[in-house]
Amino acid sequence: MPDALEKDPRPVWDRLQDVFPEREVEWRVQSSGLGSEKPWALVVCYIQGRAVQRRLDAVVGVPNWKAAYREVSGGKGGMICALSVRDGSDGEWVTKEDGASFTGVESVKGGISDALKRAASAGFGLGRYLYYLDSAFANIHTSRVAGGQRITIKPAQNREGTAWTGWWTPPALPEWAIPADERAARKAAREAAQNTSGDAYGDEPPL
Question: Right CATH number for 3-171 from 3.40.1000, 2.40.50, 3.30.390, 1.20.120?
Answer without folding.
Answer: 3.30.390
